[in-house]
Write a structure and sequence with these properties.
Blueprint lengths: L16 E5 L4 H12 L3 E6 L2 H13 L4 E5 L5 H15 L4 E4 L5 E2 L7 H29 L2 E6 L12 H20 L6 E8 L6 H4 L1 E2 L14 H13 L4 E4 L1 H12 L1 H18 L24 H5 L4 H28 L1
Helix pairs in contact: 1-2, 1-7, 3-4, 4-5, 8-9
Amino acid sequence: MAHRHGTVRMRDLHDQIVVITGASSGIGRAAALAFADRGARLALAARRPEALDSIAAACRARGADAVAVSTDVTDPQAVERLARRAEEAFGRIDVWINNAGTGVFGPYQDAPLDLHRRTVEINLLGGMYGAYAALPRFLRQGHGTLITNISLGGWAPAPFAAAYSASKFGLRAFTASLRQEVRRHPGIHVCSVFPAMVDTPGLEHGANVSGRQIDTGPLVYAPEEVAETFVRLVRHPRDEVAVGWPARAAQVAYALAPGPTEHLTGAAIHRMLDRAKPARHSYGAIRRPLDDAPRIAGGWRARHGVPSARTLSLTGLAILGGATLVALGSAAARAGR
């Protein structure tokens, strides 16, 4: 397939070679299917071979070529093997998506230190290792798109998620630095994605030492919405993209008033914990993968009968717009009288 370079935007994803880490569940699994539906060829990475094989098979069932490469993103040699395996299978790499991530929720001192270290290794170093494998290849071929899934935690710090916030702040700075390094290479793009709360198995796969159940609240986005953002970025690259208005609000609030934003966030999470039901400590999948069935959604919206946050937001805007029109009509009628 011929490639155009320079400021080209890849509108047709047919035969684009896409590497996705953290592809066995959640957003990564949804992204694999989204790119498969567009005819991309995929190299899918995660720690669990069986879960990877199932998503690779699902992509092939949709007519896409896919290879599964068991990879621990905290091992730079394993990440380099992933890149070589993608090249062996498909000849090149056009898109690399750093999607693997985890977190520890609860008082910082209550979690074993190795969980915090693993969180930073997976989130920050895993993204750095991915970029280290992808960028030399992009530079040699003159084109490529590096997409890193960061989260709103890269804009506003979250109490009781100190290591997670540290890794995400670092990841945002890292990708911003890379963007400036490659600015003289118009065919290479470094994109950062900042989703709001997403209904994935990630809450179960992360550690929870708070002693309380995590309540995401009603504004929870579907993993497919983040996956579609990845697709749009390959077609129309942008530097930083929020998924969901809470992520945009966090960005603006912390930029304009960091102190008050920290205090309000802290008060809200303390209140949530005070009202939450008790829960046992769990270390999730940080040390080793879980044996749960691979899936896209975490099930929170299904259990509570809540539509995606996008649907709720659009419904709210429609109601607000309707109320505004009614109010304007009433005011016009009174003026006419």
